[in-house]
Design brief:
With 158 residues, the chain is mainly alpha-helical. Helix content is 67%, strand content 0%. It has one domain.
Length: 158
């Protein structure tokens, strides 16, 4: 068999497998898209909070506090992958295990992820913000401003 034919057959098998997986998981794509957008919106609001904290507390936030660092990018990718895995597993459980139950597990999983991200977005937007709505929200939400301060968290453990 010619090497080009071997490569062509291999690629055909790979793309067939990818196509089959996409066909099986296609119903989860809208949920994956919505949850991914929510996670990215949370990242944007965290970055905005970092800028506000730098402006409000210039001596306490590091000079690169408003930059998006690579280890934060890694955490975002892990969060996105976990969300995708939860949505896909929920869909597969619903289709193959709990198919007789009147509950849509995929929607429950996506809703939980979106609620979690929305809560975090509200915390980010209300932190280090003097607006009246932010003050009201701070009575029930966590103020994340101190997370952007230039301190070593190990110092706080003692």
């Amino acid at each position: 068999m010619h090497p080009n034919q071997l490569l062509s057959d291999f690629l055909r098998w790979i793309f067939t497998a990818i196509g089959a997986a996409m066909a099986i998981l296609e119903p989860t794509l809208p949920y994956i898209l919505i949850c991914t957008l929510m996670i990215l919106a949370d990242c944007f609001t965290a970055w905005s909070l970092s800028r506000r904290a730098r402006k409000a507390y210039p001596n306490r936030v590091s000079k690169d506090g408003k930059k998006f660092k690579s280890h934060h990018f890694g955490a975002v990718i892990v969060t996105i992958l976990k969300a995708w895995a939860l949505i896909v597993m929920s869909y597969l459980i619903q289709c193959h295990i709990t198919d007789g139950m009147p509950i849509d597990l995929t929607k429950v999983a996506a809703g939980a992820i979106c609620f979690w991200q929305l809560w975090s977005i509200l915390e980010n937007e209300s932190s280090c913000n003097g607006a009246k709505w932010a003050t009201v929200l701070q009575k029930i939400l966590v103020d994340k401003t101190s997370r952007h301060f230039d301190i070593d968290l190990d110092e706080l453990k003692d």
